[in-house]
Amino acid sequence: MFSFMPVLGNEPLGLVDEARRRREVYARYIEKRVAAVLESPVTEQQIEAEVAERVRREVRRRVAERAVRRLGQVRLRLPAEGPPIAKILKAVARTAALSVNELRGPRISGGLVLARQVAVLLLGELRPELSIPQIAQVLGGRDHKSILNARDRDPARVADPDSQSARWYSEARALHFPKEV
Fold first, then answer.
1. How far apart are CA 42 and CA 19, in angstroms?
2. E-assigned strands of the chain?
3. Is the pTM of this model over 0.90?
């Protein structure tokens, strides 16, 4: 009969023992290869370069975060750069024969839209510290995309001296800078 007892000497081992032995030999081989690669000066330089790059990225990220926070703090302390927002809106409303409430209101008739676009241009020009969302909020909580659209489209209308937008723009601006007229 067959005996499954381990046999000493050069006799064949059982399948499980042979698989275990091969796995151990393979693990020792892998460990030797890893140790050889890690001891290489090239590998050491690659590791140092990777660590240095990760540190640089993290430093840049943290500096950018602090700069954004600091810039926000500085903006809060800066005085307004131009005329008060209310005066700009009143000037546009007056030249367009509207009320400020109509200018800020929900209606979207042709004249109101043009007047709002003129207000967007003047707010952006006379109060450069205002962001697009802030201008949108000033004009009744409008979508910032409509403010961007007005800012991009209306300069062409204002450039045409025969347009109503150009007349409103120049009249409203003249109320703030009378010497330019």
1. 35
2. none
3. no
Dist. CA 24–CA 32, nearest whole Å? 12
- Percentages helix, strand, coil for the chain (3-state, rounded to 5) are 75, 0, 25
CA 162 to centroid of chain Cα atoms: 39
pLDDT tens digits, one per residue of 2-55: 555 555 555 655 788 888 889 999 999 999 988 888 888 888 888 889 999 999
Residue 91 DSSP SS3: helix
Amino acid at residue number 145: K
Segment among 13-17, 79-83, 126-130 with least mean pLDDT: 79-83
* CB neighbourhood size of 58 (10 A): 10
Any idea where the domains of the chain sit in the sequence?
A: 14-78, 85-180
- Out of 3.65.10.10, 1.10.4160.10, 1.10.1750.10, 3.30.750.24, which CATH number does the structure's domain 85-180 have? 1.10.1750.10
Write the DSSP string, 124-143. HHH-TT--HHHHHHHTTS--
Half-sphere exposure at residue 177, Cβ-oriented, CA atoms within 13 angstroms? 9
Q: In the 8-state DSSP scheme, what is residue 178? A: G
